[in-house]
Amino acid sequence: MNDTAVSRGSRPDVDPASVTRPTIGVLALQGDIREHVAVLDLCGADPVLVRRPAELAAVDALVLPGGESTTISKLLEVFELLEPLRERLRDGMPAFGSCAGMILLADEVLDTRPDARHLSGIDMTVRRNAFGRQVDSFETDLEFAGVDGGPMRAVFIRAPWVERAGDGVEVLARVPSGPAAGRIVAVRQGAVLATSFHPEVTGDHRVHRLFVELVRDR
Ligand code: GLN
């Protein structure tokens, strides 16, 4: 990638050297960790891998990658990160979860294993593997509230959707058409953001940019 210099910081009128680069952890237990690291770097953050409680304690914010939520859930317990992570979320740490990361951030999950654990970062109920077999993986263009620049390409891979969003939860995107039209696929509650799809794989960095700015504003 050779566009690092021009991509750093999203305000072209500001000298990139004077903009703080927040330290954003990427939960590195399983999933598409490297993709998030690369995009965070391009969006003006210093990404670091988080596998231990001490590493979690040192970050300004955390990204939970896509992958397999029940596996990540198990590893959170094995690596003794589950309680520390719940505590940091309760204390207001900004977080962004894509796909499996969205599932982990929910406070209730349908169609998962009975022993799966969740973080209650967002007051929502999420249905795992919600799109069913026929559209198990697909791409679409959708409107994403609060980002400029027109529709966003969204890649869904055995994705969840949000079945219930609590009162304090802002709906940022819905499926525009097809059998799942209207389903909620991006949400925000305070400084916690979640998408059913994978903005880390499309080359469109607007969601990560929004997240980095949100972290910087805290
Ligand atoms: N289906 C996966 C799960 O249940 C999520 C898929 C993904 O992250 N791409 O965790």
Automatic annotation (TrEMBL):
<keyword id="KW-0663">Pyridoxal phosphate</keyword>
<keyword id="KW-0456">Lyase</keyword>
<feature type="binding site">
    <location>
        <begin position="67"/>
        <end position="69"/>
    </location>
    <ligand>
        <name>L-glutamine</name>
    </ligand>
</feature>
<dbReference type="InterPro" id="IPR002161">
    <property type="entry name" value="PdxT/SNO"/>
</dbReference>
<comment type="function">
    <text>Catalyzes the hydrolysis of glutamine to glutamate and ammonia as part of the biosynthesis of pyridoxal 5'-phosphate. The resulting ammonia molecule is channeled to the active site of PdxS.</text>
</comment>
<keyword id="KW-0378">Hydrolase</keyword>
<dbReference type="GO" id="GO:0004359">
    <property type="term" value="F:glutaminase activity"/>
</dbReference>
<comment type="subunit">
    <text>In the presence of PdxS, forms a dodecamer of heterodimers. Only shows activity in the heterodimer.</text>
</comment>
<feature type="binding site">
    <location>
        <begin position="157"/>
        <end position="158"/>
    </location>
    <ligand>
        <name>L-glutamine</name>
    </ligand>
</feature>
<dbReference type="GO" id="GO:1903600">
    <property type="term" value="C:glutaminase complex"/>
</dbReference>
<comment type="pathway">
    <text>Cofactor biosynthesis; pyridoxal 5'-phosphate biosynthesis.</text>
</comment>
<dbReference type="InterPro" id="IPR029062">
    <property type="entry name" value="Class_I_gatase-like"/>
</dbReference>
<feature type="binding site">
    <location>
        <position position="128"/>
    </location>
    <ligand>
        <name>L-glutamine</name>
    </ligand>
</feature>
<feature type="active site" description="Charge relay system">
    <location>
        <position position="198"/>
    </location>
</feature>
<dbReference type="GO" id="GO:0036381">
    <property type="term" value="F:pyridoxal 5'-phosphate synthase (glutamine hydrolysing) activity"/>
</dbReference>
<dbReference type="Pfam" id="PF01174">
    <property type="entry name" value="SNO"/>
</dbReference>
<dbReference type="InterPro" id="IPR021196">
    <property type="entry name" value="PdxT/SNO_CS"/>
</dbReference>
<dbReference type="GO" id="GO:0042823">
    <property type="term" value="P:pyridoxal phosphate biosynthetic process"/>
</dbReference>
<protein>
    <recommendedName>
        <fullName>Pyridoxal 5'-phosphate synthase subunit PdxT</fullName>
        <ecNumber>4.3.3.6</ecNumber>
        <ecNumber>3.5.1.2</ecNumber>
    </recommendedName>
</protein>
<dbReference type="GO" id="GO:0008614">
    <property type="term" value="P:pyridoxine metabolic process"/>
</dbReference>
<dbReference type="GO" id="GO:0005829">
    <property type="term" value="C:cytosol"/>
</dbReference>
<feature type="active site" description="Nucleophile">
    <location>
        <position position="99"/>
    </location>
</feature>
<comment type="similarity">
    <text>Belongs to the glutaminase PdxT/SNO family.</text>
</comment>
<keyword id="KW-0315">Glutamine amidotransferase</keyword>
<feature type="active site" description="Charge relay system">
    <location>
        <position position="200"/>
    </location>
</feature>
<dbReference type="GO" id="GO:0006543">
    <property type="term" value="P:L-glutamine catabolic process"/>
</dbReference>
